[in-house]
Design goal:
Elements: H1 2-13, H2 19-57, E1 62-63, E2 76-83, E3 89-96, E4 99-110, E5 113-123, E6 141-148, E7 166-168, H3 173-180, E8 186-189, H4 208-240
Parallel strand pairs: 1-2, 3-7, 5-8
Antiparallel strand pairs: 2-4, 2-6, 3-4, 4-5, 6-8
Length: about 240
């Protein structure tokens, strides 16, 4: 009798549509809620990062000696030294206002060490396979740039060997620093700085609105899962009874 009573209680607890379907729906809903929450958190992080970006770009350049490890992104900085044209990197497949071209990155030697300076953009002349000619100032100068957060690519193709200038297809600041003995951060020249080519537009990459929309989409997906469960399992069961 006890066994029958236990089976009866289990049968009474059995959700409509069966345990397998109910568990799948619960897992799916928890997953969508988790992903939506994560997108909301990322949205707040991006909003905070954008505030830092706007605040720091509005400030005057600081001396390179004032840089603080881990707090340099989007900081305007002033450096005095010389470009080393013998260690030039030419990064292919970079566009400016829709036109194809290259980025030119050269070491800049200062009393505070060597820094990797992105001098800006050069247009393609002829074909991609033609390496552009670059004029590098040789005199001592003071330049101004922005410490830019770079997402280094895993590719190291073109970085090996003793050939210079090195033409590479992927920006890898970490590898550039290793090859040249420079600090592992990219400094993008401001438009008014000496030594600049065609300046790169210093726009903030990615915003919080994208994450808000993703969060809303995950909520919609979760609602559709719950609605489908109600329609195909709960509602149909009620109609059958």
């Amino acid at each position: 009798m006890a066994r029958r009573s236990f089976k009866a209680s289990l049968a009474a607890m059995r959700p409509r549509g069966g345990w397998a379907l109910a568990i799948q729906v619960a897992v799916a809903v928890c997953t969508t809620l988790g992903l939506s929450t994560w997108q909301v958190i990322r949205g707040f992080e991006k909003a905070e990062l954008r505030d830092v970006y706007v605040d720091r770009l509005a400030q005057d350049p600081i001396d390179v000696a004032e840089l603080v490890d881990g707090e340099n992104h989007y900081r305007k900085v002033s450096l005095t030294g010389r470009f080393d044209s013998s260690r030039t990197f030419i990064v292919a497949y970079q566009r400016h206002l829709g036109s194809p071209g290259f980025w030119v990155i050269e070491p800049f030697d200062t009393d505070q060490g060597r820094f990797l300076v992105n001098r800006g953009w050069l247009a393609v002349v002829g074909t991609w396979f033609h390496t552009p000619e670059i004029e590098t100032p040789k005199e001592l100068m003071e330049i101004q740039g922005v410490v830019w957060p770079s997402k280094s690519e895993l590719s190291t193709e073109g970085y090996e060997g003793d050939n210079w200038p090195k033409r590479v297809n992927r920006l890898n600041i970490e590898k550039m620093a290793e090859v040249t003995g420079a600090h592992g951060e990219e400094i993008r020249l401001l438009a008014a700085s000496p030594g600049v080519l065609t300046p790169i537009h210093l726009s903030f990459e990615g915003g919080s609105s994208t994450h808000w929309s993703y969060a809303f989409q995950w909520l919609i997906i979760g609602a559709l899962i719950v609605g489908g469960y109600w329609f195909f399992a709960l509602r149909n069961t009620d109609m059958d009874s």
